[in-house]
Amino acid sequence: MRASLSLLTIALGCWASCASAAAASKEKVCSLRPLGHGRDDTDQVEAAIAKCGHFGTTVFAPGQYNITRKMTWDLVSSRVDLHGSLNFKPDIAYWLDPANTYRVIFIQSQASWFVLTGRDFTVDAHNAGGIAGNGQAWWSFFANRTRADGDGRPVALTLSNVTRGVVRDFRVEGQPFWCNAVADSSEVVYDGMYCNATNADPVWAGQNIVPNTDGINTYRSDKISLLRFDITSGDDCLAIKGNSTNIFAKDITCRGGNGIAIGSLGQYAGLPDIVDNLVMEDLKLIRLDPQVQPNMVSGVYLKTWTGSVHGAPPTGGGGGGGFVSNVVAKGVSVDRVTVPIHLYQTNGGGSGDTPSSLQFSNLTFSDWTGTSLRNTIVDVECSPAVPCPNIRFENVNIAPPNGTAASFKCINVASEFGLPACNATGAA
User: What mean pLDDT comes out for the span 118-141?
Assistant: First the structure.
């Protein structure tokens, strides 16, 4: 509870600081409305941000703003009221050209078409505005093509090098790839984020053709608050990646996909990944109609690459060290997930690989309820090179399928508390 209050204090402090900075700048206001009739709005949007993005307020009237090229908003002590949607043109060949996107996210060379950067700002979309990603064109295009990290599919909204920023009540419809990413940033609050990746192409009904549509990825960032997320996805709802510290997530609803991920970690040899002080509470993971989205894999899962190196990033890698510690996941409801609590350290590897040297410790899973599709409720398989100490389970009450007994697996767990039936040894 103490960790939760500390992180919430950070969130409220950033919120107050950003709001104060925006309030002090209201004398400079830029207002705009969509040009309409299919015309390109990119120039007028960039001109308004250039004029009022520092020490001013920019107000977007309702409607759709057509955006035809990559765009950065450099915001300093300012506010944006985004009542409309930024409509990124569904020209796949154009966006897949590396010259037409930014590469500000180091991990896996991910592409971005829209970047927020700066300090002491608020972007408020009033639960009406945000981004139209035109994802269906992308999902149908890639349904029978090879997909790989770093292939150029753009992240819908990227925060890069932000200090004390707030994104509030923002909606993303049809993210082609990740919905959000926050990288190299600190003291950021997301308060209300809606992302919807739902296939509507009947050709692909019952298949997951929306992979990599993660709700958010955090990377190389500190003091990040993720509040009131509602994510429909075919992949990770939240993904806490390397060097994410002091992260607080609360009131998260995940509809379909792979669950909430810590990782993957250890992809880059020589670049340690650290996740420390992560508190997540009030999490709901809901299985959808399988014709809409067949996946609802995990509640919370943690993963690393092996200690061996196979190829190079963005698609290959391994061999990276680091640690994960002080993680709390509490107040979690799971609806027919495949494996509620899962930890494994063999991502991207094989049976003969060197074990991972990245250690997990001080993990707490408390107040879990709901249902599992398998009778294995907990599957924690740590690396034999760095067994996991202090893994705690409190009030984990998840029902296995009818007629089966719940089972709990702990392999290479140095010390475990709360599950007497869990085999905390080096053998299965």
Answer: 98
Distance of CA 273 to the CA centre of its chain: 16
Looking up tokens 């770093």, which residue turns up?
150
Q: Of 4-13, 146-155, 308-317, which range is least confident? A: 4-13
Q: What are phi and psi of 79, to 5 degrees?
A: -135, 145
Backbone angles phi, psi at 77, to 5 degrees: 45, 55
Q: Which of 138, 238, 127 is nearest to 193 (CA)?
A: 127
pLDDT, one tens digit per residue, over 326-344 is 999 999 999 999 999 999 9
Place of tokens 């996740």: 275
Neighbours of 31 (CB within 10 A): 12
**Catalytically annotated residues:** 235
**Please, what's the b/e burial string for 145-155 (b: 16 or more CB within 10 A of its CB; e: otherwise)?**
eeeebbbbbbb
**What single letter denotes the amino acid at residue 266?**
G
Q: How confident is the model at residue 428 (pLDDT cuts 50, 70, 90)?
A: very low
3-class secondary structure for the chain? CHHHHHHHHHHHHHHHHHHHHHHCCCCCEEEECCCCCCCCCHHHHHHHHHHHCECCEEEECCCEEEECCCEEEEEEEEEEEECCEEEECCCHHHHHCHHHCEEEECHHHEEECEEEEEEEEEEECCCCCEEECCHHHHHHHHCCCCCCCCCCCEECEEEEEEEEEEEEEEEEECCCCCCEEEECCEEEEEEEEEEECCCCCHHHCCCCCCCCCCCEEEECEEEEEEEEEEEECCCEEEEECCCEEEEEEEEEEEECECEEEEEEECCCCCCCEEEEEEEEEEEEEECCCCCCCCCECEEEEEEEECCCCECCCCCCECCCCEEEEEEEEEEEEEEEECEEEEEEEEECCCCCCCCCCCEEEEEEEEEEEEEECCCEEEEEECCCCCCECCEEEEEEEEECCCCCCCEEEEECECCEECCCCCCCECCC
Please give the radius of gyration of the chain, using alpha carbons only, rounded to the nearest integer: 21
- What pTM was computed for the model? 0.94
- The amino acid present at 1, given as its one-letter code, is M
Contact by Cβ (8 Å): 73, 115: yes
Of 217, 157, 159, which is closest to residue 188 (Cα–Cα)? 159
How many whole angstroms separate alpha carbon 87 and alpha carbon 132? 5
Q: What is the pLDDT of residue 27?
A: 81
Q: Does domain 260-309+319-428 have CATH number 3.40.190.170?
A: no
Any idea which residue has 């060379």 for tokens?
109
